[in-house]
Amino acid sequence: MESIRNLKIYGSYNDFKNVFLEFRKKPYFEDWKDNDIEDEYNYLRKNGEIYVKEINGKVVGLVTLLNGVQKGQEIFLPTNNVGYISDIAVLEEFRRRGYGTELMQFAVNEFVKNGNDYAYFRTLKNGSMSESIGIKLGFKIMYRENGEMIIQECSFPRINNCIPEKEERKFLIKKLK
User: Fold this and answer.
1) Kind and range of the H or E element at 127?
2) Rounded distance, CA 175 to CA 83, Å?
């Protein structure tokens, strides 16, 4: 049996952590410590929504949603009535089965249901699985009025020294109304 459920209502921290640890793997290699993951979980439970994809009782993916343009993200929209896909992840052994697409479409549907005007997310500047899914679902890369791509420099401690702590991320957006 397959379902997507709200982790805030039906779920646990361990369900979240097991999938969130995917960010420690390729291509991100982010050095998330247990206390950092717990802080992220508590922040999202308080300020947003956490949905998980479940197959036969096993959580295999997640998507996290927040409202409004997020602090530190220099994007400018005609409204703050926007939904932000904060995180999307699928366990490696369950990838390439459409679950990431299903989770992102679920997020878009939630934003539409909540009356948001736009949905957006941030991803690696040089491409990612989430970018491919977003493009497939109608998201567009965000550019400034001068035609320059909107980029945010981010810094994450890494578990792989071959990857710099600083990286550039771009934004993708979809008009919902």
Assistant:
1) none
2) 10
The per-residue pLDDT for range 59-115, each reduced to its tens digit, is 999 999 999 888 888 888 888 899 999 999 999 899 999 999 999 999 999 999 999
What residues are paired with 141 via a beta bridge?
172
Please state the pTM of the whole predicted model: 0.89
Q: Interior CA angle at 72 toward 69 and 73, to 5°? A: 50
CATH of the domain at 85: 3.40.630.30
Total structural domains in the chain? 1
Domain of 147, in residue numbers? 2-175
- Cβ burial of 120 (10 Å; 0-12, 13-18, 19+) is buried
Pairwise CA distance, residues 173 & 152, whole Å: 15
